[in-house]
């Protein structure tokens, strides 16, 4: 098989697609399977079939179905991760975290992300893929918005932005993964106020 | 087999042990296996053998090896979870979280707790057991210390103590499970200061 045939995913008779298009189709199919049916359903065979790509291509691009799942999850959740920047940090954080909670609780993302983080604890390769393809890019998006706020004087100069990320999104993961405590978007304003102003008397 | 033989774990010729003693021996053996070798090594067979108990007893007391592992993890980590109460909330939180980080990073608890939380995402029974046997009792211990501080006026009356727990311990779980970002006890004072005073200008 030539390089080109591999990259285009081998759909004979339907013309060669550029690699970026095949890649996008694979991520879309993987994201759909992950969200609708969960991590167990996501195999290279199934994704290749639904994306009209070859298994060889998938094996070449991703070390494991878990790694593909992690990247597909990031691609699929990408629109939910965008930050408004209205200049009102509290409102923007509430909007962003609220969208994240609805994505988890109403749009079906809680199961796949729990499964991905769960499986990652038993599979170091998946842990690396999930952190690299989702966790850290996602943290970087949040950090960028917080940095803008810090430059505008809305966060203290010595605030540790990584800790702020841990205390906003990490707090939600804690309830979801460790405590298995129910929550909805109504917790978000309190969570943001705690992250901004703390629990001690002012 | 009589009720009593079952409860004493059936070690013929060595005398009958009271059920509480058998239970303690089982939890000790399970905790040792979990910490030394990880979740995969913890089977009813292995624990029964090492604790001198019968498999029947174990099956009767725990629905699954995972549920036993969750309770054993709580029993084993119990001493690390205790709170000093010196009246200085910041110092007490730093001492407690510092002990938790050392327990994870230096005493080998990171692997088993990650495995337990991980496996729980793929096994609802284990998720329930882990939340009931570890996550929530652990949160209750933290909440009790925070409540004392709140009554003493060291936390605001309207502070949400569950959120404070999420923003202290949950932040560490976030780094450990989701970001796979390295950390050590040096992060703890900053984490506590953020939870107490927030990231916004005072």
Describe this structure in words.
Chains A, B: This is TetR/AcrR family transcriptional regulator C-terminal ligand-binding domain-containing protein. Chains A, B: InterPro entries: Homeodomain-like_sf, HTH-type_TetR-like_transc_reg, HTH_TetR, Tet_transcr_reg_TetR-rel_C_sf, TetR_C. Chains A, B: Residues 43-62 bind DNA. Chains A, B: Keywords: DNA-binding, Transcription, Transcription regulation. The structure is a homodimer of 202-residue chains. Chain A has ten helices and no strands. With 202 residues, chain A is an all-alpha fold. The first copy, chain A, has two domains: 3-61, Homeodomain-like (Arc Repressor Mutant, subunit A, Orthogonal Bundle), CATH 1.10.10.60; 79-197, Tetracycline Repressor, domain 2 (Orthogonal Bundle), CATH 1.10.357. Mean pLDDT of chain A is 91; it is low at 1-10. The interface between A and B is large, with 51 and 51 residues.
